[in-house]
């Protein structure tokens, strides 16, 4: 989602992910820009080689809450994410959610899309780091590649994510940093990816764009330099998991498991807990029917296991 961001920023952002991560398409929601028309954005994105879809809305973004700025106030962003998810991205191989001021980087040859496609649950989350640029010359536009400085011991940026819509978590709703009501978001943090959060790529609507004092800035490589130094696997060429080379029966079983997982994780946490409790009870009852032990004895065995 973007409003009045410089068209140069939009082009740099899109081109970077096309060339370094093998992105093939982009969906950009223009939030009522006044400096240009949606058609101007589409022409810029087409120059990057991406299949571009530019949507437009002028609805209110939502009020900014009190600290710690919970996501409950991001009305438009959350609704737009899920409208796009349901209408346009159900058949996507993998979807990366990030903003114009964020450049995703891999620490291995594989792209974030390939890594997510081949992961068992189809979810990759990763933290980021702030990067800063010197004040540009008067009238010049600061670019992503100007962000060649960092501040030591700076708190990491909130995690971003890439998801496989056809995977076990494909029916969960999207939020900017998490999959909604998924209690295991924390378990999917990957060290194979990170992102540079470019501080001066902003119109100033949300934060101060002034860089810290020069004495605090430490030189570092730019995102382009890091991406160039990292060898890349051709998009979509990562070796398949061994599980994908299975018989038709096992593939059918896998499809059933994925479908069941999608329905389970789409439930609210309370219903998930109730479902697990019911499954545990049925499992105990079935085991009791087989060995004819009383249910009370089965529970005693279970509790003894915890104590041991």
Structure description:
With 308 residues, the protein is of the alpha/beta class. The protein has 2 domains: 7-229; 242-307, no CATH class. It has 8 helices and 9 strands. It has helices at residues 7-20, 38-46, 75-88, 112-118, 223-229, 248-266, 269-291, 295-307; strands at residues 25-31, 51-57, 95-97, 102-106, 123-131, 149-151, 157-163, 193-198, 217-219. The strands form 3 sheets. A 5-stranded mixed sheet has the order 3-7-5-8-4. Strand 1 (25-31), helix 2 (38-46) and strand 2 (51-57) form a beta-alpha-beta unit. The chain starts with 6 loop residues before the first helix and ends with a helix. 26% of the residues are buried. Mean pLDDT is 84; it is low at 237-244.
Quick summary:
With about 300 residues, the chain is of the alpha/beta class. The chain has helices spanning about 5-20, 40-45, 75-90, 110-120, 225-230, 250-265, 270-290, 295-305, and strands at about 25-30, 50-55, 95, 100-105, 125-130, 150, 155-165, 195-200, 215-220. It has 2 domains: about 5-230; about 240-305, no CATH class.
């Amino acid at each position: 989602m973007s409003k009045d961001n410089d068209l140069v920023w939009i082009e740099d952002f899109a081109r970077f992910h096309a060339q370094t991560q093998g992105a093939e398409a982009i969906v950009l929601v223009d939030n009522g820009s006044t400096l240009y028309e949606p058609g101007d954005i589409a022409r810029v994105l087409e120059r990057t080689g991406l299949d571009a879809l530019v949507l437009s809305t002028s609805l209110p973004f939502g009020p900014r809450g009190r600290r710690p700025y919970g996501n409950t106030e991001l009305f438009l962003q959350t609704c737009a994410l899920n409208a796009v998810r349901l209408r346009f991205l159900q058949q996507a191989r993998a979807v990366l959610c990030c903003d114009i001021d964020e450049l995703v980087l891999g620490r291995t040859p594989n792209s974030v899309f390939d890594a997510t496609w081949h992961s068992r649950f189809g979810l990759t989350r990763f933290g980021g780091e702030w990067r800063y640029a010197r004040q540009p010359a008067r009238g010049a536009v600061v670019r992503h590649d100007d962000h060649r400085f960092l501040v030591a011991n700076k708190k990491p940026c909130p995690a971003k994510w890439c998801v496989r819509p056809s995977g076990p978590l494909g029916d969960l709703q999207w939020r900017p940093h998490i999959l909604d009501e998924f209690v295991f978001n924390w378990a999917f943090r990957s060290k194979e990816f990170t992102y540079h959060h470019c501080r001066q790529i902003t119109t100033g609507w949300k934060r101060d764009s002034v860089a810290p004092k020069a004495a605090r800035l430490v030189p570092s490589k730019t995102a382009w330099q890091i991406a160039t130094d990292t060898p890349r696997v051709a998009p979509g060429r990562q070796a398949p998991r061994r599980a994908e080379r299975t018989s038709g029966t096992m593939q059918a079983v896998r499809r059933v498991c994925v479908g069941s997982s999608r329905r389970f994780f789409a439930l609210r946490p309370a219903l998930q807990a109730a479902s697990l409790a019911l499954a545990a009870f049925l499992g105990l009852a079935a085991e009791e029917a087989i060995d004819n032990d009383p249910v009370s004895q089965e529970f005693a065995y279970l509790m003894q296991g915890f104590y041991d």
